[in-house]
Amino acid sequence: MVHSGTRRIRMQIAVASAVLSACWLWAGNASARDELPQSHEQITLSFAPLVRATAPSVVNIYTSKVVRTRATSPLFDDPFFRRFFGQRFAVPGETRERVQNSLGSGVIVRADGLIVTNNHVIEGADDIKVVLADKREFEASVVGADERTDLAILRIENEGEAFPAAALGDSDVLEVGDLVIAVGNPFGVGQTVTSGIVSAVARTRVGISDLNFFIQTDAAINPGNSGGALVGMDGKIIGINTAIFSRSGGSIGIGFAIPANMVRSVVEGVTEGGRLVRPWFGASGQSVTADIANSLGLPRPTGVLINEVYDNSPAANAGLHVGDVVLSIEGRVVDDPESLRFRIATLKMETKATLDILRKGKAQQLMIAVQPPPEDIPRDVTQLVGEHPLAGAEVANLSPALADEIGMGGNPRGVIILRLRKGGTAQRLRFQPGDIVREINGETIKTIEGLLKAVEAPSRSWRVAIERDGKILSRVFQK
């Protein structure tokens, strides 16, 4: 006789199998979404066919780089200490080298050997080795990398051989509750497959990268999965696994993937144009709060309230005004500034996009041109020399194009510090890359030409005002 508890467990398993089978059928056959399972085969769920089709395109990535360290303890120079512990210990000032290894995952997205992975997987690497699912190994070269999305594009070659490639899907069709599988190399144990559901489709307050817009999943993702595939039930890549939320370093069911539509945009930009250039919107705004929604007559807080439109920008030319609320782009809902940036970044260059807005309580539609940010003033990169506080700084004129390249928001203008020479005056005086020089000895600085005139004027003291993180800082330096 079967115990009632056992019967209850079996019933729960049967119900769960039926639900999963229904999800499987829903994903694979739209006409079967409303039908109940009719056979044993229909309630037998297996991801095996999906894994067989996808796994060959997922690769393991091993990187290595030489790390140089300097000995600092005076004990290393003591003859008595060295007599007992040998010459292998470095003396102060002596540089020691060691090889640092790391691992991750990647996905072949083109048969010619083009691979997508995370930028943090290969950043700073001296050597990159790619291992296919069939154990073959290849040296990889970096085609391009984008820190703002944490994506990198690699290439492997084998005398014209076609590699197994996975197709990128449309991540915008994902819904919360959809089944997904994650394929990667967690903890270096080898290719591993985990399954789960989509927990959220537009996580924008994660803080992983500059362009925050992630798919959240409870499929187990662990260290080593970075750069691996998040696969939908149609067998297409709908995301690149990039990070987890964890207090212990292991998976707790909160993983994040870069949407396939962003991946496609980066791949096309890097491989077709040689350099990734994102569309320029030319306006900025803030999230619509509950109070703002009430004042505007919106049924719920949604959209982006525009508070600045830049002159001669695509937004200005489309007729966007301060006070407008952007509700959607190309029919895709915009909930906050992060999602607005994502939608703009994934538009195809040199096309037009539909912008749905709310203006004074009335819905309107605008057409915006998808264009690259202009370099309307030459950057004129200059290394500063001489006897002044900014000596040793490399500076440039800001334009929308340069601002986009270095990941600056808004529409900053002026002269920006790009780099600092090690040991130079500017570094010793604690200037930082990203500082915008606003004033020198009472002279407003707008261009490199004006900056050079200001620092070349003889002076026994210097009053320098810079903009850093939106704040104006002013200091006086004496000769």
Structural overview:
- The chain folds into 5 domains: about 5-45, no CATH class; about 55-155, Thrombin, subunit H; about 170-275, Thrombin, subunit H, CATH 2.40.10; about 285-370, Pdz3 Domain (Roll); about 380-479, PDZ domain (Pdz3 Domain, Roll).
- The protein contains 11 helices and 26 strands.
- The longest helix has 25 residues, at about 5-30.
- Strands 5-4-1-2-3-7-6 form a 7-stranded antiparallel beta sheet.
- It has helices at about 5-30, 50-55, 80-85, 120, 260-275, 290-295, 315-320, 335-345, 400-405, 425-430, 450-455; strands spanning about 60-70, 95-110, 115-120, 125-130, 135-140, 140-145, 150-155, 180-185, 190-205, 215, 230, 235-245, 255-260, 285, 305-310, 325-330, 330-335, 350-360, 360-370, 380-385, 395, 415-420, 435-440, 445, 460-470, 470-479.
- The radius of gyration is 28 Å and the shape is globular.
- By secondary structure, the protein is α+β, with helices and mostly antiparallel strands.
Search tags:
single chain; 479 residues; alpha+beta; Thrombin, subunit H; 5 domains; seven-stranded antiparallel β-sheet; 11 helices; 34% strand; globular; disordered N terminus
How many domain units?
5
* Biggest beta sheet summary: 7 strands, antiparallel
CATH architecture of the largest domain: Beta Barrel
> How many runs of DSSP E, i.e. beta strands?
26
| Number of continuous helical runs | 11
Shape: globular
CATH fold assignment of the largest domain = Thrombin, subunit H
Q: What is the helix content? A: 10-25%
Termini Cα gap: 96 Å
Strand line-up in the sheet with most strands: 5-4-1-2-3-7-6
